[in-house]
Amino acid sequence: MTTTPGTGPAKVRLRHLQDAKDRGRPFSMLTAYDQFSAQAFEAAGIEVLLVGDSVGTTVLGHTSTTATTHQDMLTFTGAVARSVRRPLIVADLAFGTYETGPADAVRHGVELVRAGAEVVKLEGGQAVLPQVRALVDAGIPVMGHLGFTPQSVNSLSGHRVQGRDAAGADQLAENAVALAEAGVSAMVLELMPAAAAARITEVVPVPTIGIGAGPDCDGQVLVWQDMAGMSGFEGKFVKAFAHLRRDLQHAAEAYRAEVEGRQYPGPEHSFD
Ligand code: KIV
């Protein structure tokens, strides 16, 4: 499969990501929460769209993804799923919807699939293995998430790189292998040394998708507002490929100036 828009499969499936790993072809995932951004990313050939619980901090004005609710995830998953055809759609299980056990994980996973998710993502290692197995047994593909896990920001004492020492890196690798054995189809590796992510990518059979985890993961993911210079977040691992916040401000300033100068609307925008 190639990443050129207009070529490759009409619909991206998990097997295409596995094929990408097996062939050593990097692939890209972006977060998406709404119709127009999702359609722009589809047109750009982005293969995987993640309806992340980061919608809470990027769209809904919360300071932590722990505030994002299951209803939020259903609403935004539906918006993205209705808007695109080709990308694989992954949706986060919100904080509090799966930690309580496999039955809750399956119940909420089923609702996300009904809303349009094709894969559900949850955070954690050993503690969530029963949930992963139950979801897979229910026919719901699962994406894992290791390293810095934002829903645990309080117990991790803030946004910190994980697995910096040998014991920490070993633990991450053990969790990654355990998640793969439990049946995850892919896993996000967030905020960890590049060497730790490279080691996991080498030892697990499923695709790894990095964010702040170096260049050796099978795929990469960014929050779209960071990728496009909309959020203004300038973390070390982020590269802004556009300056949407600045451009949007300039557009709004130009609009305001034309309204105040009675230049807009002109005759061409008015009805006889
Ligand atoms: O919710 C999200 O945006 C995520 C990414 C950080 C991978 O989980």
How would you characterize the overall build of this protein?
This protein has helices at 14-23, 35-43, 55-58, 70-83, 102-115, 129-137, 166-182, 194-203, 224-227, 244-260, and strands at residues 27-31, 48-51, 88-92, 119-121, 142-147, 186-190, 208-211, 219-222. By secondary structure, the protein is of the alpha/beta class. It has 2 domains: 3-241, Alpha-Beta Barrel (TIM Barrel); 244-272, no CATH class. An 8-stranded parallel barrel has the order 1-2-3-4-5-6-7-8, surrounded by 7 helices. Helix 7 (166-182) links the parallel strand 5 (142-147) and strand 6 (186-190). Helix 2 (35-43) crosses helix 4 and helix 5 (102-115) packs across helix 6. It binds 3-methyl-2-oxobutanoic acid. Residues 31, 50, 52-54, 92, 188, 190, 211, 221, 223 line the site of 3-methyl-2-oxobutanoic acid.
Count every helix, treating DSSP H or I runs of 4 or more residues as helices.
10
Can you tell me the overall shape?
Answer: globular
Summed up, the domain count is: 2
- What can be said about the biggest beta sheet? 8 strands, parallel, barrel
* Bound molecule types: 3-methyl-2-oxobutanoic acid
Instruction: Strand order, main sheet: write it out.
Output: 1-2-3-4-5-6-7-8
Level-2 CATH architecture of the largest domain: Alpha-Beta Barrel
The proportion of strand residues reads 5-15%
What class do helices, strands and sheet pairing give?
A: alpha/beta
Supply the CATH class of the largest domain: Alpha Beta
Distance between the termini: 53 Å
**Whole-number mean pLDDT:** 96
Gyration radius over CA = 20 Å
Total count of strands: 8
Helix content: 25-40%
The name of the CATH topology of the largest domain is: TIM Barrel
Q: Could you spell the SSE succession in H and E letters?
A: HEHEHHEHEHEHEHEEHH
Low-pLDDT residue intervals, each spanning 5 or more residues? none
Spell out the CATH superfamily of the largest domain: Phosphoenolpyruvate-binding domains
